[in-house]
Design brief:
The chain has about 120 residues and is mainly β. The chain has no helices and eleven strands. Strands 2, 4, 5, 6, 9, 10 and 11 form a seven-stranded mixed β-sheet that branches. A hairpin with a 6-residue loop joins strand 4 and strand 5. The N and C termini lie far apart (about 40 Å).
Length: about 120
């Protein structure tokens, strides 16, 4: 019924930037918090960033240290993750997710996942 499609991953040098996009369809986009998670081979999935349905509340994983920014354009049914000053330790598959409601906290128990987009940062 509903699905999320990530794009924007790729290979980038250390210190470079990427912007990931998550396009949603099949639901009222503004009614749901959106977030990003990542998982590297052999490691557990970790939280990257999330944003409430209205865009008024955002949160980030501790490792981000001001380098990443999450945003959304509800008119386009799309969420974004701007990643600056990328480091090799950022290398992972990045997954978009939707929470169960507009509240920011719903992203911690995601309702829907995308298929992921690979980010690789060269050392």
């Amino acid at each position: 019924q509903v699905h999320l499609v990530e794009s924007g991953g790729g290979l980038v040098q250390t210190g470079g930037s990427l912007r990931l996009s998550c396009a949603a369809s099949g639901r009222t986009f503004s009614n749901y918090a959106m977030g990003w998670f990542r998982q590297a081979p052999g490691k557990e999935r970790e939280f990257v960033a999330a944003i409430s349905g209205s865009g008024g509340v955002t949160g980030y994983g501790d490792f981000v240290k001001g380098r990443f920014t999450i945003s959304r354009d509800n008119a386009k049914n799309t969420a974004y993750l701007q990643m600056n000053n990328l480091k090799p330790e950022d290398t992972a598959a990045y997954y978009c997710a939707a929470g169960g409601a507009a509240s920011y906290t719903t992203i911690y128990s995601p309702q829907l996942w995308g298929q992921g987009t690979q980010v690789t940062v060269s050392s």
